[in-house]
Amino acid sequence: MRAGLEAKLGIPVSYLNDGNAGALWGHFHIFGASTVATSISAIIGTGLGGGVIVDGRVVTGRKGFGGELGHVLIPYQSIPGIEGMKPVCNCGREGDLEALCSLTAIDKTLLPYFLQRYPDHELAKAGPGAAKKVRGMAERGDPMCREIFRVQANALGLFFDEMVNTFDPDALIVGGGAIETSPEFQEWFIGQIRAGMPVQRVEQADIPIRVMPNGDTAGARGAAIEALKLARARAKAA
Ligand SMILES: [Zn+2]
Fold this sequence. Notes:
Blueprint: H1 2-9, H2 18-31, E1 39-44, E2 48-54, E3 57-58, H3 97-100, H4 103-117, H5 130-139, H6 143-167, E4 171-175, H7 183-196, E5 209-211, H8 218-237
Helix pairs in contact: 2-8, 4-5, 4-6, 5-6, 6-7
Bound molecules: zinc ion.
């Protein structure tokens, strides 16, 4: 597809999936065009996208499936307060990151689970679309909705811990609709991510967790950076 479009347009064409493109923007926003920094981005939307940037380059992998962070399994059973929960992802895995940390996870797993504990909660009668109301209610302090976001943040903490031990990154970045909220809620959410991480070794305990800037436009911005890199590389080679 890329080669075909390139032939039609007569200019270099690059391709990144939306998660990887967003990750590249988050990385660039913090580190600029540095070619030595490494970052991991998790973007919580309908699913869980994201990307791994090593030494300034997006890890796309052999067939473009690099950075499919949502389908990485996490030891979710260690998250407090979710005894008996069976989080199953659309991909068929039980207990991957997306199965806990996505809007789909709220809809399919977290909300039904917590409504058993809060049967009189107003979302019990909200029907389809209830999942979309959870974030706003969590932000306003609703205890059940806060619990749902606490579980998501703890899940992300377990995942980030795996990434810390795999990459020893310069930054962990979290973005997406889930965290397009007030700074107060973002701060609380990041605190809950940290609370979900196993004890870190001293050398890594200060790895920052940052919020992805520019919301929905992060992917478009990252794609533009990737295109610019390609155009420069081609110009240099010519
Ligand atoms: Zn999955």
